[in-house]
Amino acid sequence: MAKFLVLVIDSFGVGTMDDVPQVRPQDIGANTCAHILQAKPDLRLPVLEKLGIINALGFSANVMQPNAEANFGTADLQHEGGDTFMGHQEILGTKPKTPLRIPFSEVIDAVEQALFAADYQVERIGGTLQYLLVNQHVAIGDNLEADLGQVFNITANLSEISFEQVKNIGRIVRDSVSVDRVIAFGGLMASSQQILDAVEEKLGIYIGINAPKSGAYDKGFQVVHMGYGVDSQVQVPEKLHSCQIPTTLIGKVADIVDNPHGVNHINLVDSQTIMDITLDAMKQAGDRFICTNIQETDLSGHAQNVERYADRLMVVDNNLANILEVMKPEDCLVVMADHGNDPTIGHSKHTREKVPLLVYRPGVTGVQIGHRATLSDVGATVCDFFHAPAPQNGTSFLSLLKAQE
């Protein structure tokens, strides 16, 4: 009875991809892992160190050292840019497509009319560029943290409006547009003026709310990610279901990946809670695939907060020790990321970085997984592990993970 756990430390990249100078020059020099460790020279993450994070990084950035017994590799992002939504679809076996890019200004009329039809109070705010203010406490506009034009944000003051209402607004927006993702979220704010004070324009085309500046992430944060155009039938959860292997999704991944036949722990943000649920899932009887996302690291990157990022890494590391203790000889663990979000680079967006692949399987040591061309190699490995049909994309590295005689 085996467990396969994929733990995604959201945004924990290990250095810019080779194509960054051509496609994302603003990310030149980004290295989320290295710059956090360099800013915290005495920080030691003993479990991640044991699993090979310094091996994957390629150099010692602080007191932590490589481990000769670690099983490690790295992987490029096959999707364009650096996106959590598409990153997780890629991890679970989807071959990425070129995303639709469109500013909110091109769909503002359709969204406004749909909200009016649902009896919401809607105001247009701004001059040449405008965003929508709904019921005085919810702003709708461009996402300024992801790649511009691919995501629309719905930012709410949850002190004044319920998250259920915010999700209802999100569904209306989702039904009105074709961008890859609509994100409906909010936090407990002293005043909705905080949202209005955080409005920013980019490139003369995009307008939205600077989410970290608004304070939405600071207290009582809740979020739902609404995707578009992803075929769940080609992904790992569906392939495993065909072999009666259940899938458990925990945290942000449960919000962005379709898993109708499994267990989904959605709307979780607190890293300790997420790790507690993950540990419980590892202890359950029977075969199971578990995928967990740690979102607070990504939020710390957006807030350009090195201290908070390091603190969340320590929470993850402490809890990884508990997970290793309960792993059985037949189990497998992959610790990885979905992109970067370097809090020191000078902007608050995701950074296009390769990600670590740290693999733990009892009895297997010193395996070099190599540099993989796509995050989908992880999903392909999961399916191979459970003898399930392969997902749409990716190449399994399971054959490398043979126990030493």
From TrEMBL:
Domain annotation Metalloenzyme: ranges: 3-388
Family matches, as SUPFAM superfamilies: Alkaline phosphatase-like
Major enzyme class: isomerase
Listed EC numbers: 5.4.2.7
Pfam families to which the protein is assigned, alphabetical: Metalloenzyme
A single GO cellular-component term on record: cytosol
Domain of life per record: Bacteria
InterPro entries with a match to the protein in the record: Alkaline_phosphatase_core_sf, DeoB, Metalloenzyme, Phosphopentomutase_DeoB_cap_sf
Alphabetical UniProt keywords: Isomerase, Manganese, Metal-binding
GO BP terms: metabolic compound salvage; nucleotide metabolic process
GO MF terms held by the record: magnesium ion binding; phosphopentomutase activity
Nucleotide-binding as UniProt keyword: no
Family: Belongs to the phosphopentomutase family.
UniProt name for this protein: Phosphopentomutase
